[in-house]
Structure formats: C-alpha cells, structure tokens
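Sequence, please.
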C-alpha cells in the first residue's frame, strides 16, 4: 500500500510541484502528518495546516495557480467538502437571518487592517490596470469605468448596493455630482463611509438589500462585488429588487465573480475563515436569473486584473506584517497571507473570472455602446 506521502507526491507532480523542492512554488513540509491530513480533509485541511505552520511555500500564489490549472482537488471529495456541498444544496446559507454574519466576521475585523491593505479610497474589489501600474490609480480607473458604463450624469440618483467603505459613493458624488444612497451590512464600513462622505449628497445605510423598497427609484443602480454574498437561491429576488429600484430608463451595473467548480461554488476553508456563506456564481446562473427580467446590454471580463489587485494588497500586508502580527497574531497573518495569495492563484489560473455586466430594464432604444 502506498504511503500518504507518496500519494501526495504523485498528485502534486501532475502540477509540477515537488515536496521540499527548491523552486518558489514547491511546498516545504514541516510536519509529516500533513499528507494524511490533507488527503482526508481536502482544501480545508490544506489551508488550516498552513495556518498551523505545518508547511510553507515561497510563492503560494503560483502554487495555487498550478493546483487549479492541473485540476487537483476535483478527485478528492473529503468529508468536509461533502458536508459543505450538502449544506449548500439543502439550506439557504444567505437567508436574511444570516445576512450580517459576513459583515461581523470579515468586514468588521478592523478598519485599520483594510487601511493598511487597500488603496487610499479603500476599494475592496478589483482595480482596472489597463493604463497604470499603481494600485491607487487602478482603483480610480475602475471607478471611472463604472461611471462611464452607466452613463452617470450630474444630479442623477444612484443606489450603491454593497457600498463598502463608501469609496464609489464618494467618487460618484464628488466627480459626477450624483446623489447617492449606499447600503452595507457591516457596521465598521458604514461608520467610516459616513465619515468619509460627510458634506456630500451621500446617505449610507446599514441595511440588507432585501429591505429596499421600490417606492424609491433611482436613475442608476450598481452592485460592485456583492453578489458573491447573495447565494443562488436568492438571485431571482436580488435582481428583481434591483429592477424595482431602477427607473424605466435607468441602467444597472453588477460586478461579479464567476466560476464553474462543479457541485460546490464555494470552498470550505474560505467559507470558514474568510467569507462565511459566500458563493461564487456561475455566469449561467446570472443569465438564468435575469433573461426574463432585464436586458443584458454588455459583459466585460477583466478577471486577470484581480490577480494584480490581490498581489498589490498582499504587498501592502507584507510591508506592515509586524504591525498586523502584533495586533492580530501570527496565525491570523498566515491566514490572511494564504487568503490573498490563493485568491490571486484563482484568477491567474483563469478558473475564476470577474465581470462587469450592464443591464437595462427593457433594452436601450438605440443600443448600448460598450466602454473599455
């Protein structure tokens, strides 16, 4: 019978990864119980064992990229993954009673951490790197791109669903003279967004999207990097609410991940430690939820830009690692390092995409002009 180490070595070999090799993406094993732990526990065990210091890798982003490109993990159905799949199928993990959980566990971990990691506007979604190599500029370019795609004009009303720390709301109000309502389910985000947008025509609400009322309609609606918290069982309602909040001649823009990972569209490790109850949509699920409700005017995939964004965030984290370790501890720093670099690998492998999808209510009369 083959040992767990031999089996693991053969699996990793298909991704050109060596155990205790000398390349940056090779894994360095510190505890030989790792092999059995990961073979029985899958991706959850891989992430937790890294957090526990059982292994290291100089380039986890490239290690992750190679694993995904080689489709390693598809064959390993661990008890943790099986339970995760069954739970997702049986339960609505994004029901309203759980809506604020991700805010409390992820976004409210501390504004100081995000100030260290993000750009000066604190945008926690992908930048747009077409014309720049600067994180600050890439995020500003993305905000400008959104405004152009929705043809934002002075005096328009704008609803920002999942407004984060208010970066886009502030940009739209300052640069375009829009009147903005932003909603978030994170208390720390709401507090900082209100402070940042003080003196501007911006209202920040601590509110779940399901509490929006169609009695208030907007010229434009955006939802940037929020649908991953909505869940497939709620997509029809999510899009219906946005349509109801949109004026008849309005435009809606949704920024969304997409992937096709089979029976589970989320990862047990990420679900436990980073984005509780999160689910990456399949692009087809978005189409199914909207094709009888709205008109898709434009789709733009700039997923490769998310790799650059995550690596820029990681660079900022490493620059301040001693401060983060002092405040949050060594295990948290390893967890955050693993999160940013494995997510970079997801986008670098091109197994996960990032979309701008523009919708109208009934189709634009003379068609939509795509902007890149």
């Amino acid at each position: 019978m083959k040992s767990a180490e031999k089996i693991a070595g053969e699996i990793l070999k298909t991704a050109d990864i060596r155990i205790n090799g000398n390349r940056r993406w090779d894994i360095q094993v510190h505890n030989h119980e790792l092999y059995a732990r990961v073979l029985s526990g899958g991706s959850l065990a891989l992430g937790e064992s890294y957090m526990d210091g059982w292994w290291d890798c100089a380039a986890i982003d490239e290690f992750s990229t190679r694993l995904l490109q080689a489709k390693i993990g598809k064959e390993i159905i661990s008890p943790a993954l099986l339970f995760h799949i069954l739970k997702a199928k049986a339960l609505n993990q994004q029901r309203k009673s759980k809506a604020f959980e991700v805010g409390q566990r992820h976004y409210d971990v501390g504004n100081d951490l995000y100030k260290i990691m993000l750009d000066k506007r604190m945008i926690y979604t992908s930048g747009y790197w077409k014309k720049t190599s600067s994180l600050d500029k890439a995020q500003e370019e993305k905000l400008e791109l959104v405004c152009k795609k929705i043809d934002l004009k002075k005096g328009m009303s704008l609803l920002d669903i999942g407004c984060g720390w208010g970066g886009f709301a502030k940009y739209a109000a300052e640069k375009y003279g829009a009147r903005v309502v932003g909603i978030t389910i994170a208390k720390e985000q709401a507090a900082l967004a209100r402070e940042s947008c003080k003196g501007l025509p911006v209202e920040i609400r601590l509110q779940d999207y399901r509490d929006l009322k169609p009695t208030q309609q907007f010229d434009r609606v955006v939802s940037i990097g929020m649908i991953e918290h909505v869940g497939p069982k709620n997509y029809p309602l999510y899009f219906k609410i946005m349509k109801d909040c949109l004026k008849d001649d309005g435009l809606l823009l949704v920024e969304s991940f997409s992937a096709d990972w089979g029976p589970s569209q989320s990862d047990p490790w990420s679900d436990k430690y980073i984005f509780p109850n999160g689910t990456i949509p399949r692009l087809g699920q978005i189409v199914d939820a909207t094709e009888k409700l709205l008109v898709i005017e434009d789709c733009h995939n700039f997923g490769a830009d998310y790799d650059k964004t995550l690596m820029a965030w990681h660079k900022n984290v490493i620059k301040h690692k001693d401060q983060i370790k002092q405040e949050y501890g060594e295990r948290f720093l390893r967890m955050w390092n693993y999160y940013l670099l494995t997510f970079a690998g997801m986008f670098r492998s091109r197994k996960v995409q990032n979309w701008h999808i523009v919708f109208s209510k009934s189709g634009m009369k003379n068609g939509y002009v795509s902007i890149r």
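Residues 100-360 form a domain with the Rossmann fold fold (CATH 3.40.50.150).
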